[in-house]
Amino acid sequence: MSTKYSAKANEQSEQPSLSTPDFVDERIAQVENGLVRMDANAQPQWGSVSTLAERMAYYPAPGVSIAVIDDYELAWAKGYGMRVAGKDEAVTAQTLFHAGSVAKSLSAAATLTLVEQGLLNLDEDVNNRLVSWRVPENEFTKEEKVTLRRLLSHSGGLKDGLTERGPDDPMPAYITFGDEVPELTLQQLLEGLPEDSIEPTRVVNVPGTSYRCANADYAILELLVEERLGQPFEDLMQATVLDRLGMSFSSYQQPLPQNLRLLSASEHTLDGKVVLGGRANFPFHAAGSLWTTPGDLALFMIDLMKAYQGETGHVLSPEMAQQMLTPQIEIVDSHLSDAYGLGAELQSTSQGPKVWHAGGTWGSNSIIWFYPQIGKGAVVMTNSASASLLRFEILLSIASVYGWPMD
After folding, report:
1. What is the C-alpha separation between 276 and 262, in angstroms, rounded?
2. 106-235 sits in which CATH class?
3. Fold agreement between 9-102+252-402 and 106-235
4. CB within 8 A of 121, min separation 6: which ones?
5. Neighbours of 210 (CB within 10 A)
6. Model's pTM, two decimal places?
7. So what's the pLDDT on residue 19?
8. If one looks up domain 9-102+252-402 in CATH, what number appears?
9. Is there a contact between 198 and 191 (Cβ–Cβ < 8 Å)?
10. How buried is residue 300: exposed, middle or buried, by Cβ count under 10 Å (0-12/13-18/19+)?
11. Domain spans of the chain?
12. What is the pLDDT of residues 38-48, one digit of tens each?
C-alpha cells in the first residue's frame, strides 16, 4: 500500500555515555531494517524481514516514535513520518502522541505514592472512602469487596460500558474533539448513559477471583483519589510523576495545554482519516488521557526499574516498586502475560519479569515494554488506529538487536 508521507527519521535524542554515536547509529539502522512482519493473527512471519518505512506504508501509519532503553539509560529516541497524513509536519522525538491505556501504569504509580503516605489503603473496601458514587453491592460483594488493590490489578470483578469498544466501533458520545472540554462527570459515566448504550458499572464476578479489564477500575480509582485529596487527578499526576521526572512533553489535561497542542501529532482512524480537531478528549483521566512522548515514558520506566532494583530517591520506594511489579491476579490464556500487577502486565522470563502495557484509542496505538532486572526496554507510539500490530513488529526488531529475553 502506498502513501504520500515520508518515513525518514526526523530527530534523535542524546546518546548514552557508554556508547559512541556511530555504534548507536548502527543499532538504530539495524532496528529500522529488521522488522519481522506479523500476519492477521498476530503471528510473526520469521524469515520475512522488512524496513520500518515499508511497514509504516503497509498499515498505514503516518507517524511513529520510538525510544529504546539499554542498561537503565535512554539509548536513543527518534521520530519517523508525519504528524498529519499528507502534510509536511515531521514527527520528532518531542512530538506528543495519545498514550491510551499506557496511562494506567503511571496512574497506578502515582496512586501508590498515596498508599505510601498513608492516605489510601490498598486493601480497604473503596466504598468506605467514596462519597459521590459508590460501587453497587450485590451477591458478588457479600464476602469480598472491591478494594484499591483490586482496582489497580483489574481484579475487582467490574463490568462497565467504557471498555468493550474498539476502533472499528463508533466513537462514544462522551468523547470530545480538538479544544472542546469533556463535560460528562465520572459519576455520570459510572452510572451509565442509556442514550449512548453505556451500561452502568456493576460487579459481575466475586472481587479478587479473576482478571477482567475495565476502564471503570481506573475511573473509580480517579474518583477515590480526587475525593481523598480534594484536587483533580491530573494535578496529582503533574506533581507526583510528570514534574518530578522531568516529563516536560507530557500532560493528563484534556484538552492539551496550548503549548503542547502545537507539538502533538494528529490521530488517525482505521480508515486513515484525521480525527476531528486532531485529538480525541476523554472525560476520565487515570484510565487513558495521557499525551506524551516515548522519551518521556522512558524516564518513567527507568525510574521504576531503578526503584525495583533497590535504589531510593525515586517516585516509589523499592518496596512499593517491587509490589507494583509483583503478580496480583492470574491472566488466563495469554501468550504475552502470566499476570497483572498493580498497573502493568507481567510475565516471567529467564532474566526476570517482563513488564508491559499497551494502549489503543480510535486514533492511536502505543506500548511500553521493559525488563527491570536487566535495565532494557522500549516505547513505541503511533498516530494511527490501524497500526496495532506495527508496535509488536518494531519491538521484535529491537529485541533482536538489543538481546532481550525471547522466552
Report:
1. 16
2. alpha beta
3. yes
4. 115, 148
5. 14
6. 0.94
7. 61
8. 3.40.710.10
9. no
10. buried
11. 9-102+252-402, 106-235
12. 988 888 988 88
